[in-house]
Amino acid sequence: MIEIRHKSSGALLYQTEADTLAHAKLANANLFEANLAGLDMTGIDLSNADVNEADLTGACLAYANLSGICLWASALNGVDLRHADLTAARLWGTKLSGVQFSGADFTRAAVKEVDLTGADLTGTILIRTDLEGSNLTGAVLTGVDLTEANLKRSVLTDADLRYATLISADLTRADMQRAKLIQADLTLANLSETQLAGADLRDAILLNTLLTGCLDLHLANCLGEVGHAGPSALDRRTLQGCISHLPDAFLEGVGYMPHEIETLRTLYRAT
After folding, report:
1. What are the pLDDT digits (tens) for 107-122?
2. Are 122 and 143 in contact (CB under 8 A)?
């Protein structure tokens, strides 16, 4: 028999005669503030369940159906989420240190204001995931699909985004200093007021990419080696602050003609 109790009061929340919760059917369950620490819940169905403010420390949720689950402010430290389905899950303020993420699907999930410092997110799916305000310092996102992800105000310093897909991602006011963006696809991405000093843009793909208010763009590395698939947009503030240090190859790649570059350099040198 397994009993799930409230983490503070000890009140009984759920009971089953089974000796494991692996592959259990608990869709829509109310497990608010439950103590689920250390439990084997491999393959469990917790879709649309209320598991807010619960303790799941060290639990195994590999291959679990967690679509639509609410995990606000819950503790998932050390949890095994490999290949779990977290589509449209809500994880605002969730504690996620030491989590195994490989193969997890976070499509359309809200993972806002979460600390993912140093997390290995290789193999995860982050399409349209809301990561606004999250800390991804030093995170490994190599080859991850972040199409249409919301990364506003996120911290991606020293993050490894090599080969990542960031098509139509919103990186407004994100801190991407020293991030590795080698061969990352930034087509249609919004980099408004994004910090890029020290970021490695070697062979990154730019097409209709929005680069506005990027006052440290000239401090990014390998700008002359960016792979331009077509024009992109630079605004007056970016040009005024950076054009003296931006290589011609980069400016031509975003769509300026040589005579326009010369005119702009003269114009903003005088302002």
Report:
1. 999 999 999 999 999 9
2. yes
CB atoms within 10 A of CB 7: 18
Neighbours of 97 (CB within 10 A): 15
pLDDT at 156: 98
Q: How many Cβ atoms sit within 10 Å of the Cβ of residue 76?
A: 25
In this prediction, residue 270 carries a pLDDT of 53
CA dihedral (45, 48, 49, 50) in degrees, to 10, reads: 160
Do residues 32 and 54 lie in contact, with contact meaning Cβ atoms separated by under 8 Å?
yes
Structure-token pair, residue 156: 């991606």
> At residue 219, what are phi and psi to the nearest 5 degrees?
-90, -5
